Amino acid sequence: MSNIFVSTSSGTYAAQAGREILVNGGSAADAVAAASMVQIVDAAGTYVSFAGMMVALYYEASTGKVFSINGDYGVPTKKQGENLTSLYAQGKLGVGVLIPGYFGGIRELLARFGKLPWEKVISPAIERCDNRFPPYVRLIKRLRKRSLTNPPSVETFTMENGEVVQKDLGETLLQIKEAGIDTMYSGSWGQKFVETVQTAGGVIDIEDMLNYRAQISEAISIQYKDHTVFASPPENAGGLITLLILSMVERLNLKETGHFTKNADAFIQLISGMRVYMPFLHKIMGNFDDAAFKKALGGRAVNLEDALLPETIDTLWDAIRRGEIDTVPIEKPNNTDVVVAVDGLGNIAILVHSACATTGRDGLVVAGISLPRMAAEFPAGAETSKKWIPGIFSPIISISKEKILAVAAIHASLYEKQSAVLLNVLEYGLPLSEANDLPTPLYPDYGQEGQVSEVLFLDQYDPSFLDALKQRELRFINVRESGLGKFVGEENLDAVESPLIGVEINRADQTAAGVTCKHYDGKVLTGISDPNESAL
Question: Cystine design at 129: which of 170, 196, 283, 440 (Cβ 3.0–4.6 Å)?
């Protein structure tokens, strides 16, 4: 394969770093690792973190197999024994911290699929720290907010001559370059991390760090017509959820009904099929016990391990037709980054990484790395899980005779956007770029008394289509006026509207085309068909 490709959800410099790795003979795994580390440097400890989590899929061209690497948050062996939310409110900030999975996942990804020496993969992130950079608008707002609300958290950076300087982080990354990733778990950084967490009331100990291992396995899959769709297996939650949604809506034969952005019946069928995932996500995350899960499914007993079986789908559709599925609200984070890369041998890597929670606001920082408070934001999972907090992000690789697709959606419309784009490609046969540009049903908005309204970018739809929805008694509101719009903020609405990153490869001529978000610096870097060609 002559073409190489890299695309990122944020950061022109991150995309350039991934490209350079590919040009210099690195694998797709090397490229996504290098680019994702640069993205974290660019975030200055605000929305993604080296103490966060990651999940990746890797398509191995020589075997045709797809592998999953889950670097989810680890849960300490010793439990707090008290309510985490209450303890956190009392100022015991260490209870909010979980065992970092990001570097553990990178370690497994590179050990299995990397080609370049470790020092070459981490060097772009170190250079980004050393060279400094002017903050983009979104970062300026985040940094100002942290400076006002929590002065200790700004210790991760300083501003000099209008540029972001992260001296402590640069020194930490240099240490990791020289000592290897193990220093994050068994070395000096790991020791400092444990001391910081315990001093702040947490219970993570050095044994928890030493025993942490990311999960690597073959991906799970379903068949969607002529496409085999791969995702990460549980403990990751997102893969199962995405495959569940596709399994549900495949039975609709949407193509015969019409496109869901133009035909009201197709739209209503699609969102009905999507709604069923919410109880499952609550159950996987530990927010539902067996009784609550059964109640949400209209009194039906369903085992998670049987979620993708045909008889389970029959049971769920019966519940939907009877109106017995509870639409249970769940908050999905919008603090995420994605990298996808294709190397010269045709291997494909797609990596999602996130803090999954607020970082930096509480002042818990270890040698330039801010610590997310994931356990405080998802206490049920942290209190009930024995080993991991299941990640909810869902990179997907789809393979047919004609094309290979690797995509991941991010931000608040996570499953809705990803499912809609996949359906546009797998069901309607659209190119990925066109599929990504079409309007997407977003997750419902929940009023004070539990009312549910579908959230839409109303200006994207034809008025006659909206009238047809009204005639079918579907309530909907403009996303810009909804709770979602207020939560995300005006500057992020474009990202919510089009938050999918991916690549589509034509197997006949091995050409690659991709989609990417508009980067914070106003530039967009997508694919490279010629290593000597300018990529901007």
Answer: 170
Nearest to 61 by CA among 502, 527, 399: 399
Q: What is the pLDDT of residues 325-351, one digit of tens each?
A: 877 766 666 678 999 999 999 999 999
Kindly report the pTM of this predicted structure: 0.91
Contact predicate 8/15, CB 8 Å: yes
d(CA 191, CA 185): 8
Tokens describing residue 506: 């034509």
* 239 within 8 A of 418, measured Cβ to Cβ: no
C-alpha to C-alpha distance for 483 and 474, rounded to whole angstroms:
18
Phi-psi region of 473 (alpha: psi -120 to 50; beta: other; left: phi over 0): left
Grade residue 529 by pLDDT with cuts at 50, 70 and 90: very low
360 in Cβ contact with 43 (< 8 Å):
no
**Extended beta strands in 332-441, E state:** 336-342, 348-354, 365-366, 369-370, 388-389, 396-399, 403-409
b/e map 480-505, b = 16+ CB within 10 Å: eebebbeebeeebeebbbbbbbbbbb
- Closest by CA to 326, choosing from 293, 355, 356, is 293
Number of other residues whose CB lies within 10 A of the CB of residue 265: 15
The β-bridge partners of 505 are 404, 512
Cα-based torsion angle of the residue sequence 260, 264, 269, 271 in order, rounded to the nearest 10 degrees: 70
CA–CA separation, 5 vs 11, rounded Å?
A: 15
Per-residue pLDDT of 467-491, as tens digits, reads 998 888 777 777 666 655 554 455 4
C-beta atoms surrounding 1 within 10 Å:
16
Token pair for 309: 């079986």
